[in-house]
Write a structure and sequence with these properties.
single chain; about 230 residues
């Protein structure tokens, strides 16, 4: 008795399987196979980045980050090239352990999570406050005067390069940490939290990832009061 639906020993499908080949028709395999990874390219000159660690540029017109190869980033670093549209994201990390932003000052921000970052948008000519959420980067609607009152607690706020650096704050276990960081890592954090967020408070995986992220920032940051920056 032959089982219904089974391949006959002489059929091409079974012969291909025995030979270690994919028995599905070639056209079908094309649609079922996962798509190849998209090749990352410099968004200014289109040269392939080949998976290398690369710099980012801020597109001030589109309010977006653009990937850049080393030569393009170097060309635009500090110059605001291409008519000032692009600005290279610098790599400095500064900390301010002696800042005056306490939990009471944090309450004035009225931000529903324990992390926020602030940067000056040159196109809008104002400070922008964002925080991670399950939906991505969410902008705070707080009165800018309230931000200024809080940010006056650290000299880091006065050192921010517009568009490309951010003041990163974290409220955790009764304290508030304060760092000056490249703005692209803030958006990296937003993406990581969006990917791992579960439930109302983010969940254990998101909290562990947040702890690891800030441990990395602490390791890289220099104390602003002793760095001369």
């Amino acid at each position: 008795m032959r089982t219904v639906g089974a391949a006959h020993p002489g059929t091409p499908a079974l012969g291909a399987a025995r030979a270690g080949r994919d028995p599905r028709p070639r056209g079908l395999r094309r649609f079922l196979a996962p798509p190849p990874p998209r090749e990352e390219r410099c968004e200014l000159c289109a040269v392939p980045l080949a998976g290398e660690r690369h710099r980012h540029l801020v597109d001030t017109e589109k309010r977006a980050l653009a990937c850049a190869c080393g030569p393009c980033a170097q060309l635009l670093d500090g110059s605001g090239g291409a008519g000032g549209r692009f600005r290279a994201v610098p790599g400095r990390y500064l900390s301010d352990p002696g800042h005056g932003i306490d939990e009471q000052a944090w309450e004035q921000l009225r931000i529903p999570v324990g992390v926020a970052f602030f940067f000056r948008n040159s196109a809008l000519d104002r400070l922008v406050a964002l925080y991670p959420s399950p939906a991505g980067a969410t902008e705070s609607e707080l009165d800018p005067a309230s931000w200024q009152t809080v940010l006056a607690g650290s000299p880091l706020a006065g050192l921010l390069e517009p568009d490309v650096e951010a003041l990163l704050l974290r409220r955790h276990e009764g304290t508030v940490e304060c760092f000056l960081v490249p703005v692209d890592i803030c958006y990296e954090l937003v993406g990581r939290m969006r990917l791992r967020w579960q439930g109302f408070d983010g969940g254990a995986e998101a909290r562990a990832d947040l702890d690891a992220f800030f441990a990395h920032v602490r390791d890289r940051a220099r104390d602003v009061r002793g760095s001369g920056s």
